[in-house]
Specification:
Helix content: over 70%
Order of helices and strands: HHHHHHHHH
Oligomer: single chain
Number of domains: 1
Shape: globular
Length: 184
């Protein structure tokens, strides 16, 4: 039996599974691994605390891409913790995909879109290389996400335009969160 907290999360997951499949099908993306991954990403980031889950070695929450990339570099050069580096770089790719796909106007307004697109693709490529070195089968998925990163960003932007009304709010996150609450 599901707890009360799990029911909205399950409904949200079902919504994002359906919305992602439908949107990406319209764009002729029929790769189930890609659509499942993106749907899970959306479900995960619907909880804003997951946007900033990466912490540095002192436990301080990292809030910018630059901070996260510096932490990944620090981990790679001092700790040689490949799994930690992978976790950080995957989060960077996920965060950038989400932000530029769902909140493109926000990243444009801050003039960070081109930087984000470059770093998001690079982050997923790094994850694919780490996965390849560790013989993880997900290497192919992350290589695909890296290679067609801008296309998948566009796919998320298309999904947003289909299922979320743009209210022109000063805070785009609040409008998105309010619309999600109504879904579940």
């Amino acid at each position: 039996m599901k707890t009360e907290a799990e029911v909205p999360n399950q409904r949200l997951k079902e919504f994002f599974d359906w919305a992602t499949r439908r949107s990406f099908w319209d764009l002729n993306v029929k790769d189930k691994k890609v659509t499942d991954y993106i749907s899970s990403l959306l479900t995960n980031f619907a909880r804003t605390e997951n946007l900033y889950k990466i912490r540095d070695q002192r436990g301080r929450r990292l809030e910018t891409i630059v901070e996260m990339l510096l932490e990944a570099q620090e981990v790679a050069h001092t700790d040689y913790d490949l799994l930690r580096e992978r976790e950080i770089r995957r989060h960077v790719g996920d965060y950038v995909l989400f932000m530029t796909g769902m909140f493109r106007e926000y990243t444009n307004r801050l003039s960070i879109t081109s930087y984000y697109l470059q770093e998001g693709s690079r982050a997923y490529w790094s994850v694919s290389e780490i996965d390849r070195a560790l013989y993880h089968p997900e290497a192919v998925l992350f290589q695909e996400l890296s290679t067609r990163f801008e296309f998948y960003v566009g796919g998320l932007n298309y999904l947003r335009s289909l299922f979320f009304r743009d209210r022109g709010d000063d805070d785009p996150f609040e409008g998105f969160t309010n619309q999600l609450r109504r879904l579940v």
